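Q: What does the assembled structure look like for these inputs?
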Amino acid sequence: MSGADFLFQGIIRAFELIFSLNPYIISITGVSIKVSGTATLLATLTAIPLAYALAFLHFRGRQALIALVNTGMGLPPVFVGLFIFIMLVPAGPFGFANKIFTPQAMILAQYILVTPIITGISLAAIKAVPKPIIETVYTLGGSWKEAIIMTFCEARFGIITAILAGLGRALAEVGAILIVGGNIAYTGSVGGIGEGESYTRTLTTAITSETSKGDISTSIALGIILISLNLSINLLANFFQRRS
Amino acid sequence: MSGADFLFQGIIRAFELIFSLNPYIISITGVSIKVSGTATLLATLTAIPLAYALAFLHFRGRQALIALVNTGMGLPPVFVGLFIFIMLVPAGPFGFANKIFTPQAMILAQYILVTPIITGISLAAIKAVPKPIIETVYTLGGSWKEAIIMTFCEARFGIITAILAGLGRALAEVGAILIVGGNIAYTGSVGGIGEGESYTRTLTTAITSETSKGDISTSIALGIILISLNLSINLLANFFQRRS
Amino acid sequence: VQQAPAGNTTSPTSTASAPQDLRLATTTSTCDTGLLDVLNKKFEDENNVRILTVCEGTGKSIATGELGAADVVMVHAVQLELKAVANRSFINRSYMMYNYFVIIGPESDPAGIRNASNATDAFRRIAAKQSPFISRGDNSGTDIMEKSIWKAANITPAGTWYQSVGKGMGETITTADIKSGYTLSDRGTYLAMKDKIKLRLLFESDQKYLFNPYHVMAVNPAKFPNVKYDLAMKYINYVISPQGQDIIRNYGKDIFGEALFVPAAGIKEQ
Amino acid sequence: MELFRVENVCMAFGKKDVLKNINLGIRRGEIFAIIGPSGAGKTTLLRILNLFEKPLCGNLIFNGLDAGKTGGLRRRMSMLFQTPVVFNASVFDNVAYGLKVRGFDKRAIEKKVSEALNTVGLPGMGKEKARMLSGGETQRMAFARAIVYDPEILLLDEPTSNLDPANVAKIEEIIKRIRDERGTTILIATHNIPQVRRIADRVGVLLNGELIEVNSIEGIFTEPEDERSAAFIRGEMIY
Amino acid sequence: MELFRVENVCMAFGKKDVLKNINLGIRRGEIFAIIGPSGAGKTTLLRILNLFEKPLCGNLIFNGLDAGKTGGLRRRMSMLFQTPVVFNASVFDNVAYGLKVRGFDKRAIEKKVSEALNTVGLPGMGKEKARMLSGGETQRMAFARAIVYDPEILLLDEPTSNLDPANVAKIEEIIKRIRDERGTTILIATHNIPQVRRIADRVGVLLNGELIEVNSIEGIFTEPEDERSAAFIRGEMIY
Ligand SMILES: Nc1ncnc2c1ncn2[C@@H]1O[C@H](COP(=O)(O)OP(=O)(O)OP(=O)(O)O)[C@@H](O)[C@H]1O
Ligand SMILES: Nc1ncnc2c1ncn2[C@@H]1O[C@H](COP(=O)(O)OP(=O)(O)OP(=O)(O)O)[C@@H](O)[C@H]1O
Ligand SMILES: [Mg+2]
Ligand SMILES: [Mg+2]
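A:
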């Protein structure tokens, strides 16, 4: 079989899998969305306040923290995965929580990876909002809360880009969740695309295991599903960005 | 050995490896820098003009292209790796080039992954530059080239963030380069951290293979080296960002 | 060499409606060949258990068990296993099956290993010709075996012809296929992939060097009180039971035309 | 009587002294004009009163209390910036902002905003995008935005600089009416000397950060205390 | 004689007609004032001349040629915006911009910039950050930036709106001198009617996008052709 054939077969397989509403595919897609969605949500809730603090508060070590956030944008996923792994295994300091190889551990890993990304990009967007805008809010009687809301509206495009970058990264991420999640699916699905059910298997970790089995067509098919998912989210988001 | 011990051992090991100037470590670090640096450079050279085009030119399909760029920020590395793999294998359409399992193939993979990231974030930064600034350039006799330079200066912070996010992503990336690069090292490095020499092995792919060996301490050590590298780059960049 | 202990710690079958979870860390070859699908399904159905299978390579599987993150491990690297048993991380190590490693390479066989007298001779010929050799380099059972063959052949492989990839079996075969190089593979993975590659099986059946035994062992509950030791033992006993061994004996015959593994419960190891 | 007082206030940016030892009392309900050459420190003084800058020395006393200890002080005033900034929204939303922030109900907001837009000569412009307005329209919209919620104190920084004579007259009329009807205390920084005569009760002259004269309108135009302020009013360059 | 001509130009933003059938010839070396109430279309007309907006209909003729076909036209003029925008750099760099773009050498740039800063009353301010300047200082800096490279045509949109009388006089003097010494053609949109009398040769009155009168200075102040422009000059509101 030639290289291009794999691609071709993969595309056909992707359509088959999507349109047959294969329950196994649905369940791993569900885990992908649940894990990456939750991680991105939590990361956004951390990152945006953090970005505001870095933009507006003048505390000691602010510059160092900005450098740290930018460094965090390049945290190696496998390292983050390993770090959480040795923390969460029963022999580790947080072993008592019994969270290794669970979706929660995966959410934690992606949260750590994605938070700096959303923070760094939001920070750049927030810093680009002209100061007089904020002063106008204040002089018209707005509180710091209203100033934050106004900044948010003005930096909307950039902040949406930040969240999209974070979500995209989370959905595409594999190194960390493979280690802390274990790529586990229940019966029937270990050896192939069966009627199994995912526990900690996501689209990306499934791609990895299909690849290591040498089943490149299925990997490509899963990749196409993942990209379609991402594209739908982005078309939706673009609709909102365009209104800014 | 408990979980935290690995971390502790990893830190010690990292210092050992760094300060002994271990030639194997130096060679994989070199490949990391060469591959990710080149990919980020090429991606920057593509992404910034693209971001300008998306910001200023009003062509058909512009909105769709923006959505596509944002989707690209979430391209699954393993998928990109596989795609390039099936294109470059001898049986693939570009097999004649004989580039599979080479640093060039890795650069290509990271280039594809990083370009949308730099484009998306730069675009947000460029769009935040007030239009009257550009009009002032024009009225003072500046050409479109000078308008671009001025926009660049005004969007400096955001564009630097974009490049840093891209470089961080490239340096941390493992899924794609593992597939297209093959994680190849020459002799001597077979059973452990020896005096071997890397051909397509990077810090991240080495972390993966050390992890699969179960040598968690060495993985952690390599992760620490990678993060230190990233941190140095960011402290340097922060120095320039601060001046904006 | 430890003798497989008899399973006499079986707990009464659970009657609860919610299935119990059992964590199994195992090497990629058992997953990727599809054996575990069949083997585990039966156990799950009969015992109201869900097996959480983490496929991650022998080295990492043992580390996972040593850290208490698995209840039971299934691996194939005798030295590593014995070391882990010696440090009391695992107990009840049981011999479950074996197969043989094979040396595969390009059909043209530039080093002429088809006529080699044994595995060390084959390796010597490859080194003499400096034909490309792809090493897994990941401390897996296969990798350890490869290293010991080089050692027995009195060769320290060096040079750009000898490339280490630090990856699983499937990916290593793919790499060797593209580079038209030799590699050492377990028989199962080779058979599973043989239709997709150009490499051919060139040398096999050296009882001394190419022997590939798989063991299953339980994480020591004395070290990690929270592991599901009883359930792990139930699983081990199932794998080495006639029922489990039968599944191993027949697995692969329909798909590959021949069995991938030979059941070995109760056999004394060399 | 005296609503607030500036006591020994000084201000510097870097090494540049921008305000030097300013003492000034503003009476409730008066229109007080601040004049002086470009760069004298007028905007800086207004910004200090609106609490955007903390003076390097001296105190602000509101109603006999230290400004820092008077909670909600900023809510009682509003400032029209010399270069008004427009929110990226409709004219209506811009003008409504101060009302929304103060929790007025929708009905009241609509009524007040459309009244304010009528007053400044922008009737029916509520739906336009504020960023698209002309220079003078922007200034009038910002004026409407600053007065619509009846602040107790109004700080106006060159409120008519971009307007034609007729619109200037209109805005001046509104300023006087606000003071007369609502008793609003109004400070106005302006370069328009005839405007000072037309609307202000008292005037202070700033020069290089010093308050060289505070006088009544009659006073400054008939017998100015300082030769430099006399020259400034005549339109001469003073240093 | 005639440097450029606006022929039947009209402009609309959305459904709003902003300029209607404008016909106007500008002579080389004259100072032409554009007056009219806020929102009349003055800025829009200047922006069309500076090629920022393409008119919906009509033509711009420069030196008898279509403006679209005259290469490098924009380089020969410069516009001072009603709300000047400042580059995030020093005052020197801001003023030097047009010179750098035109490839002047470092020596010449330094000389010209410091001269220009002196002329507008900002001597020695080159090293200051431009964003920190006061409103009037910013306006003067932007004026210096627009004239420093001797453009052939100068478009000034309310160039003295933020200045005190003495500085206004100074800028007016510079404007006249530039025209007298360099023969620069100058269009100035202004709300300052006395200023029109002081510096302009001719004047056009815009009202709701229509050019209701074009006249000489003597003409418009002694016998205006249109009753509405007469009223506007008297300071009355016209519609
Ligand atoms: N980009 C735009 N989109 C929509 N409307 C616009 C735009 N630019 C200007 N306008 C409208 O066109 C009209 C004329 O604007 P212009 O800026 O030319 O007025 P002007 O005569 O310069 O007024 P002013 O003296 O207040 O500066 C105004 O009513 C304004 O709201
Ligand atoms: N943030 C700042 N940093 C440095 N210098 C400043 C800052 N703000 C104002 N200045 C300087 O302080 C002086 C006074 O500025 P201010 O804006 O108060 O003047 P002004 O009287 O309002 O002038 P104008 O009539 O031109 O608006 C000016 O010389 C200005 O350059
Ligand atoms: Mg001012
Ligand atoms: Mg205007």
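The pocket of adenosine-5'-triphosphate (ligand 1) is lined by residues D 132-137, 162; E 13, 16, 18, 36, 38-44, 82 (CB under 6 Å).
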